Amino acid sequence: MDTFGRHLLVEFHGCDRKILNDEKRISALLHRAVLAAKATPVGEVFHRFSPQGVSGVVVIEESHLSIHTWPEDGYAAVDFYTCGECFPDAASEVMKDGLGAESVESMLVHRGVAGEGDSMQVRRHRRVRAEEPAAE
Q1: What is the pLDDT of residues 100-125, one digit of tens each?
Q2: What CATH code is carried by the domain that includes residue 48?
Q3: Domain residues for 124?
Q4: Catalytic: 83?
Q5: 63 belongs to the catalytic site
Q6: Pairing mode, if any, of strands 121-129 and 54-60?
Q7: Which residue out of 7, 15, 63, 106 is catalytically annotated?
């Protein structure tokens, strides 16, 4: 069995505070990100906190995409865990644009790596301001 997966951890800073507090917009945005990643959605749960903030997860055949927002700080923490032929970086771009993020910090971790050594391997860690192109 192949247990390899890509786990993209992303922090979005300087986001539109109204979007971060809108459960319907966050849900629609996460679903657009799922489609951009070429993943297959199978379920979802979203919750709006009082007085503010949204948490949500879209379960996909390939694992999940999740978000937690802090509108008061213009911040969102997003987690893309995918296996198979998915593209978490494409999902992250959709989220960045949809949230209006001024900067993005991300870490890509390969998980379930077969063979000797660590099963989790950090493949990259970067921070990019919105006006800068994302380096590959």
Answers
A1: 999 999 999 998 887 777 888 888 88
A2: 3.60.90.10
A3: 5-129
A4: yes
A5: yes
A6: unpaired
A7: 63
